[in-house]
Each structure stands twice: as structure tokens, then as C-alpha cells.
Amino acid sequence: MKSVCLAILNYNGKQHLEHLLPTACAAAKNVRGTCTVVVLDNQSTRDDVAWIEREFPSVQVVVAPKNDFLFSYNWLARKRTEDVLVLLNNDLKVDRDFVAPLIKHFESPDVFSVSARSYDWNEGEVTSGPARLEFKNGFYSWNFDTQHQQTCHTFFSSGGFMAVDRNKFVELGGFNPLFVPAYCEDVDLCFRAWRRGWRCIYEPDSIVWHRHQATWSGHSTTDYLDSLELRNLLLMQWSTFPMQKGCWPRLRNLAKLFLGSFFSGDRVWIKTYPRTLLFWLGVRRHYLWMKVGHRELSQILSRIEDECSSKRLMSSTRTDDMRSSASSTTSRLRT
Question: pTM of the full predicted structure?
């Protein structure tokens, strides 16, 4: 049985931990073998650490050397000895049985990460699913297929509730500092894992409830978060994915996006794109190793969509459907 660490990231989040820690402790007790609950505190300025030590004595509190957002996980992963790290935002609560469905997949030596099914905190709607890469109007994007609630491969595992093979995580160097402070770091991490020949899996039998963006509440405005998300989306495009072929199609698509943003009153694109481009031009030489070509991307997408046999992930019927989808996606990427 793999040893497990439930690693909860926290910064001044006692109001969230009041909901998460009782459920995390219950889930840890329900695991056969070693399962430790650890709060990775990013130097909270309130009484979070003292409160945890008083109210949850079975929980280990580890204070990060600095508040490095979720990149503090890179430091923690090198300090721990467990086989599997389950990375959890503090704005969650988890099902009592949520650990075992994640951990079982790590019996396969090529599994890098497994992500859980998330429900909206209040409405109870499913908010996660297997992630798929899309290409439209000259830009790549990725979305969760919330209608597909079966165990399958996923383009990436959500960083807020994902289990990772700790040794593989450390071998990859953890989350990439290009994406500090947040957004796309989990996409980049899992894509690099796919490039290594490892796999990422979506497991709907593992369940969490999530307050979306609650950890940012009170610290950041909506405009800031939208700009940050767009910034890192652009950096992911430029650092990793192959460019659309032909200069004029790229310029045409870019002009459409700017004009659409201007006439809709959305200033995020107009303000964020030039700043991000200038930043990228200044640092791009340090990230040339991240770039993939069309052929490699197509091969990775085919692996993601190839769901293996019914004994491992899905039925053969669904496998054929996914292969057809991969072929369609690859065709779009090459045009």
C-alpha cells in the first residue's frame, strides 16, 4: 500500500480549514496504511497555526520558508517521504472515501497524477471532469468535460485537488515558476508529465466540494484574477504549444480578439496582452526547452485519448469514440 500525505495549502484560511480539516482527518483514518494530514502554512499572519495545533493535534503543521503561493509545494515535496502527495486547496471539504480511489491508480508505475471529481459548494453541480485541449481562432484552451464522469485520461489534473507521485513531481522540478503566482501551473506540470511518458487520470469516484476562488477572496479583485488567468494562458501558448502556421492567419485572429474585446467593453485583453508579451520577450530564452512541435503534440493527444482496454480504464466502445475525437483534434491543430 502506498504511503500518502494529504497536503493542505493555507494562508490566513482558518474559516476554510474549519470545514476541511474534520473531513480530511476522517478521510485519512479511512485509509489502509499510512496517511498523514499536513497543513502547509504560507506564513499566515493570524492565529491559524496555533488554532490548528490546539483543535487538531493529529494534524502536522509545516510552515513554509516564505509565502510562495502553491509553489511552496515544491519545497514541501522535497521534505516529505510519502509515496503520494494529495495536494488540496483549503477551500474544500472532502468525502470520507475520497483517498482510496485516487491512490489505487499509483499501482501502475507510469501514473503521474490523479484528480478528483469536484462539486460546487452550494449548488451541488459537478464542476470538474476530464480536461481536453482545444484549438480555436489561433489559440489553445482547455476545459473540463463535466458530462463525462468516467475514469479516463485527462489533459491535466486540477492543482486544487490532485494526487501526484511525489518522486515524479520532484523529478519534474514541481510547479514551473514561469506561472507564479497562479493559473496554468497545473496544466504545464501535467503536460510535462505526458511528455515524459507518464499518465494523468481523472477519477470521479473521488469526491470533493469546492468554493471556487475562495482562497483569493478579500485579497484580489475580479479584474486582477481575470488578468492573471489571461497572462498565464498566453505564457502557456508561447512557451509550450506550436504556433499556428502562417503569419497572416495569426495576425488576423489576433486582430479579431482585440476588436472583439474593444467593442464588448472588455479591457482585460487590451491591457494584459502587451504587458505579457513584453515580459515574455524578456524571459523566453530561459524557457526554450518547453516548446513542442505539432508532431509531438499530436502524439501526446493521441495517448491522452487512447483510453486503453476496458480492464484498465474504459469500455472499448468509448475508446473508439475518444480515438475519433483525438483524430479530429489533431486535424484542427495542424490547420
Answer: 0.87
- The three grid cell numbers given for residue 125, joined into one nine-digit string: 453541480
Dihedral sign for Cα atoms in the order 97, 102, 106, 108: positive
CATH code for the structural domain at 4-216: 3.90.550.10
Q: Are 111 and 105 in contact (CB under 8 A)?
A: yes
SS3 content of the chain, % helix, strand, coil (to 5): 45, 20, 30
Q: What is the pLDDT of residues 17-34, one digit of tens each?
A: 999 999 999 999 999 999
Domain boundaries, the chain: 4-216, 294-334
CA-atom Rg of the chain in angstroms: 20
Distance CA 176, CA 7 (A): 19
pLDDT band per the 50, 70, 90 thresholds, residue 316 = very low
* Greatest Cα-to-Cα distance within the chain, rounded to the nearest angstrom: 63
* Grid cell locating 205: 469516484
Between residues 219 and 164, the one the model is more confident about: 164
pLDDT at 266: 77
Please state, in angstroms and rounded to a whole number, the distance separating the CA atoms of residues 237 and 335.
16
Task: Report the C-alpha gap between 122 and 127 in whole angstroms.
Answer: 12
Give the DSSP H/E element, type plus range, for residue 7: strand 4-10
